[in-house]
Amino acid sequence: MGVAAAVVSESQILLVQEAKGPYAGCWGLPKGYVEPDESIEHAVLRELREETNISGDISGFLGLRTTKTQRGVGLFICYKIEPTTLDILPQEDEIANAQFFSPQAFDQLEWVSAAMRGFAEVALKNTPLPLIDLSSESNRPYHLVFSDGRETLSDEVVL
Q: What is the CATH T-level fold of the domain 2-128, as seen in this structure?
C-alpha cells in the first residue's frame, strides 16, 4: 500500500522530483509505502519527513487510487497535511529537488502520473474530507472518512 502527502502553503503545493528509478526527473507529491507494522497515517507523516524534512499533522483525506498489479491489488491513499515546519531538506538519495509550486506551473512539469497531478489539483481546492479518529475508543489506530464530509459519527451509533 502506498501513501502520499499533500502539503499546501500560501496557495502552493509541495512537490518532489524523483532522483532515480523509472520516474527520475518526474514530479509528484512526497510518497512511499506503508511498513507491515505501521499505521497508514503514521506512514504518510514518516514519508513526508524522510523525503523533505517537513513535519505536519493530517488534516483530511483527499483521495485514493486503486489498480491491479502483478502482486495483487494496489492501493494508494493521499492525505492533506498541515505543516508544522517548512524547512525543506530533500532526501539526497531519492529526491533530486523539493519545492512549492502554484497550479499555473503544472503544465510545465513532467509528472510521475496523472493520478499524482490529480491529487495535487484536489489539494489546492482545499476541500479535504475530515478524518475521524476513533483510536482512543478502539485501542488501536482506527480512522473513518465519509463521503459526505461528516466529522463525527451520528449520536445514534453506539461504539
A: Nucleoside Triphosphate Pyrophosphohydrolase (3.90.79)
